[in-house]
Amino acid sequence: MANEVQSGTADLSSDNRLRYSVSLVKQGAQQFYTLTMPSDVLARTCKVTTRMEDPTAGFQRALDKKRASEIAEYIDSHGGTIPNSIVLSAQQAADLKIVGRGKTLEFTDTPDAFLVLDGQHRVYGFSLAKTSLRVPVVIYNGLSRSDEVRLFIDINTKQKPVPPQLLLDIKRLAELETDTEQTLRDIYDFFDGEDNSAIFGLTSPSEASRTKITRVTFNQSVKPLLSMFSGKEAFEIFSILNAYLQAVAIEISKKSAQPLLAKPVVFRAFMAFFRRVAQRMVDRHGSDYSASNFQSIIEPVFANMPIRKLEKPGTSWASLRDYLEERLASKLTL
Fold first, then answer.
1. Nearest Cα to 12, choosing from 2, 1, 24?
2. What gap in Å lies between CA 117 and CA 237, rounded to an integer?
3. Are 227 and 164 within 8 A, CB to CB?
4. 234-273 confidence digits (pLDDT tens)
5. In 3-state terms, what secondary structure has residue 288?
6. Integer CA distances (angstroms), 20 to 41, 149, 168, in order
7. Strand segments (E) across the chain
8. 155 backbone dihedrals φ, ψ, rounded to 5°
9. What are the Cα distances from residue 165, in Å, to 3, 48, 207, 280?
10. Which helix (H) or strand (E) holds 328?
């Protein structure tokens, strides 16, 4: 039969119509259809409307080609699977109909058939990929533009993404870490677990925190410094950085009992300050990376420094680093 539909298949009729077997789902006052569709069909029948393209009616963010290219690479080169459903709204051009006793969905094969409500970068990635996948799809029909916008807002505000610090924490389990990520993880784990850690008890490995140092904050702070430790193992790097932070913590404790190093802005500023301090420390003490030697360099920086600079550092770690570097330069004696 020319238009016979089987589960997971579709036929193209003479009038450029596609058919897929579907299931009707009702949730509250809304209903939608679930099905699977080839990724190349999605790529050619879907569109997005951004504020840039349509200032009046557009509501989606602009497409990021780099992100879409990464998805295409994941599909083509790594045999990747994408089980998340693409959420679509049928447009007038689709002329969507339900046939076959309510079990078959039919629409016109046209570039404006569907508006993407969720998964626009995946659909864009499908268009760049050479491999075709079977993709789970949810299709709403008969939505007004205001309905589409509300649904877009709900999807993008009520579905909580996985915190980046948790993703970093579980990357090792998935065997996806780069060498740099592995080194940073090991160093962080030493700071998190060693009793003599200058920030022991001030770390949060897998959860977001405004009062503790997460993996994300730590990686952003330490990654730029790794080139200074060429050939050194993670524990050696930890030991040197820990001696430095112990010196910082001692100087802070002279002015405040608060764990100010746990403030992300303060932590990032002092880690960015490390390079300048280390240069002077090596010039004066060689490779004896002790807390007391680091303290001999930074102690003058703290002299007469108002502690409010660390208690209320603002939002710019770079500004605080510049302030510390200016104080270090002003204390130089020959």
1. 2
2. 46
3. no
4. 999 999 999 999 999 999 999 999 999 999 999 999 999 9
5. coil
6. 12, 26, 39
7. 17-21, 23-27, 30-38, 46-47, 86-90, 97-99, 104-108, 114-118, 134-140, 203-204, 213-214
8. -60, -40
9. 50, 31, 6, 34
10. helix 317-330
- 54 secondary structure, DSSP code: -
Q: Whats the size of the chain, residue-wise?
A: 334
- Return the number of other C-beta atoms located less than 10 Å from residue 130's C-beta: 9
Sheet of 134-140, strand order:
23-27, 30-38, 134-140, 86-90, 114-118, 46-47
> Is 179 buried (19+), middle (13-18) or exposed (0-12) by CB count in 10 A?
exposed
Cα within 13 Å of Cα(246), Cβ side: 17
| Rounded (10°) angle between helices 179-193 and 215-222 | 120
Supply 175's token pair.
């065997």
Give me the residue label for tokens 């330069």.
329
Helix (H) or strand (E) holding 116: strand 114-118
Type of residue at 321? R
As a whole number of angstroms, the distance between CA 23 and CA 180 comes to 46
Residues 6+ apart with CB under 8 A from 131: 39, 75, 76
pLDDT on residue 161? 60
Quote the crossing angle between the two packed helices 234-253 and 264-285, to the nearest 10°: 110
In 3-state terms, what secondary structure has residue 251? Answer: helix
Q: What is the pLDDT of residues 268-299, one digit of tens each?
A: 999 999 999 999 999 999 999 999 999 999 99
Rounded Cα distance, 180 and 224, in Å = 11
Burial class (CB in 10 A: 0-12, 13-18, 19+), 271: buried
CB atoms within 10 A of CB 201: 9
Q: Which two tokens stand for residue 119?
A: 């998964």
Q: What is the pLDDT of residue 235?
A: 96
What are the residue boundaries of the structural domains of the chain, listed by start? 17-158, 164-330
Main-chain dihedrals φ then ψ at residue 106, nearest 5 degrees: -130, 140
Element at 74 (helix H, strand E): helix 65-78
